[in-house]
Amino acid sequence: MRMRLVLFWNDFLKSIKEAKFDFFGMAKKLLILITVVMGMGVVALMGFQQWLNYGISTDYSGKPIYIHLDKQVSVRKFGSILEEKKYINNGRAFDIYSRWWKKRIHVPKGTYEIVAGMSADDIFSMLDKPVLNMVRVPEGMWIQRVANILEEKKAFQKEDYLKKCKDVQAYKKNFSFLGDKIDSLEGYLFPDTYDMPYMMGADEVIKIQLKEFEKKILPLVPSDIDLHKLIVIASLLQLEARDYEDMRNVAGVIYNRLQKGMKLELCSTALYSMNQWRALKPGEAANAISENNTYHHQGLPATPVCSPSVQAVKAALDPVVHDYLFFVYQPLSKKHFYSKTFTEHCNGIRMRKRELKKMNTGRAK
Fold first, then answer.
1. Domains 65-126 and 132-216 alike in fold
2. pTM for this model (two decimals)
3. How far apart are CA 196 and CA 134, in angstroms?
4. CA–CA distance, 118 with 296 (Å, rounded to integer)
5. What are the structural domain ranges in the chain?
6. Per-residue DSSP letters for 167-196?
7. 149 C-beta neighbours (distance < 10 Å), count
8. Which CATH architecture has domain 65-126?
9. Portion of the chain with pLDDT greater than 90, in percent
10. Cys bridge to 235: 41, 246, 304, 340, which one at CB 3.0-4.6 A?
11. Quick one: CA torsion of 90, 92, 96, 102, rounded to 10 degrees?
12. How far apart are CA 326 and CA 322, in angstroms?
């Protein structure tokens, strides 16, 4: 058997020589070709790696960049945003890097903080932790005051918020409870604690506040109640009273005076008309000329004077039934003095002055 294999091999070599087939030369050429192709592949790969590194690198050394997304976007889109803001050199490279290393395909909605010196891997890690910016919008704030707070928190530009709050028509499609009577969103922007990341934008902030109003206020309101009138009264209670029971008593006074055709003469409406929140000087309330100042106009103000709380709305729906027509706050007892006649009310005012004098004397000592 061994002899047969040797003879077969000799015959094979002889046939190659007779055919003048240069097997070793061909193998050498094939080896050279493979080496050249592999070399070109290595060069191409190195070139690609160099392009990729350049694309995702940056010399950015400025202030932190905040990127707000109001919806989920692709990594390619996010890379384009980084390129537009001159944080990286090539957004496409950022997308390819993500796919190459299986980082992610999409970037969730939210606000992201990009700081100088971050690598691509740092950025992808940061995308798992959107910036949180918890902001408290207190009850009893009107739009102008809320705008000041949220601009300080960098949620939006104040002027943009104020402008959009007057464009009621833009929000009626999605929020049908905004009736034809209103020409401002005053009173409908629910006060609460919100996550309002930097650069969120006025439009998105307004939509979130309106959704909370829809969620927390509308279920309280019977179908036969005039919503706008209710919110106006609730806003007055929010600024005039200190707690729920006080709100219910003040609500009783408001309904009694409306029924008798008396002016409400509420300080909160004068302050709203002046766009100031402070103690009024004697006679000052009557000087603020506005359709919202109840010292000038009979009936309710044309618009709510602040964003009321759930408690204020409940109090407006459930006033205490009594005969009182006046009330005045007593600073020492921290309660309102309620009265049925103007003479009793004047006595309450004198009591207030004595308490204020006593308080000022105590501070002087």
1. yes
2. 0.74
3. 6
4. 60
5. 65-126, 132-216
6. -THHHHTT-TTS-TT-SS-TTTS---EEE-
7. 15
8. 2-Layer Sandwich (3.30)
9. 42
10. 304
11. 90
12. 11
